[in-house]
User: Fold this.
Amino acid sequence: MNAKRHTKSSDRNNSATKLFVLDTNVLMHDPTSLFRFEEHDIFIPMKTLEELDDNKKGMSEVARNARQASRMLDEIVSGGEDGIAAGIDLLKPSHELASGRLFLQTEAMNGTLPDSLPTSRADNQILAVVMFLQGKFAKRPVILVSKDINMRIKARALGLAAQDYFNDKVLEDTDLLYTGSLALPADFWETHGQNMKSWKQDNKTLYQIQGPLVPSLLVNQFVYLDADKERPFLANVRARDGKTAVLSTLVDYSHHKNAVWGITARNREQNFALNLLMDPDIDFVTLLGQAGTGKTLLTLAASLTQTLETKRFSEIIITRVTVPVGEDIGFLPGTEEEKMTPWMGALEDNLDVLNKPADEPGQGGAYGGDWGRAATMDLIRSRIKVKSLNFMRGRTFINKFLIIDEAQNLTPKQMKTLITRAGPGTKVVCLGNISQIDTPYLTEGSSGLTYVVDRFKDWPHSGHITLQRGERSRLADHAGEVL
Assistant:
């Protein structure tokens, strides 16, 4: 990532290297930020070190990051005590990722702050250091880097340059996020049909094509052409090699003969999603979408079919980030599974839909009356395990169907911890809505879900689709649009 993204466009033409003053929350958010500023210099105020020390205790992600940042600083400084005042070269400690220098505060720096800003506050002490440095290096850009919005506002009000930390952001604009599908132009077959080869394989038709669109296609990307409304062309990219690509037709999950646990796709994107969820060659699936687009329902239906009917997986494991929307209601009684139950309302709602009785009265339900329905629910629940994120480290899941719900609240580091739990035969599915992030300091651009969607695209064993249309109810659809 380019450290110059920290600067305004007007600064980019300035040949002088910049001096970035790091706020504590930047180091606690990303300890490797010390090596993310390329040729520019970094300044760490003494108050930043004290705040790192105050936050190092505990088992939270913030405490772990504070400890890691302290260890990294110790390694850097222990090799260059003699040159702290002149700055420690970062080239060797960063393995040539950064060529700037690290400066630590070695003297009292008291910039003249307004009387309304008490120096007893840590933020104001850091601002005083920035103000002092700006006066000392008049010809050099001195920029405060902070994840705290109010800190940046205060800095700008004092006439100081301040920026957010951008290196953890995968995308500046989430509108550019990979959607997993592409509408083909109306003249697609005219421009790509020359020298086309076609053959049958596993009840699917495959097309080998060449043309101007091929270089931009990604493996497992879905393509569609709506020229024939009755029978639109739907396919996914099976392979791409240089100037040629292989397209494969899909299983039509909108037809009742291909229903998955009684569920059929209600729109194009749901059909794409079920093709990913049911494909044995796909190990990792990400589904994005607003509330009511069917992410959880489709995933549960696919997981139950492959666990109970085709026996491809031994059990289903569901986990989610426990971030409350309102005030926390305190400690919950019971075992790990019982503590997680209040967070799994969505699971219960979807299981009710999937285990619905027969539509006709007097038929006694789809699974042999109320007794049969209750027995089926018991069987299903015995194969679904609800786990907490807190106890995932060090585990290995073999032949499991792992569902990570509300994945937009995970950091990239937490996402890596979870996905690397997958052993042989395990499929991982991440569900989320990046417009509903409840975790402080995470944005749509820096969410772990955005991170994996971007990093896994074009890998042959992963797939992604963004679900567009809500299928919950007309009330929910209208609320999603107007509220």
About this structure: Confidence is low (pLDDT under 50) at residues 1-15, 324-329, 358-367. The domain at 259-482 is CATH 3.40.50.300 (Rossmann fold). The longest strand covers residues 233-241.
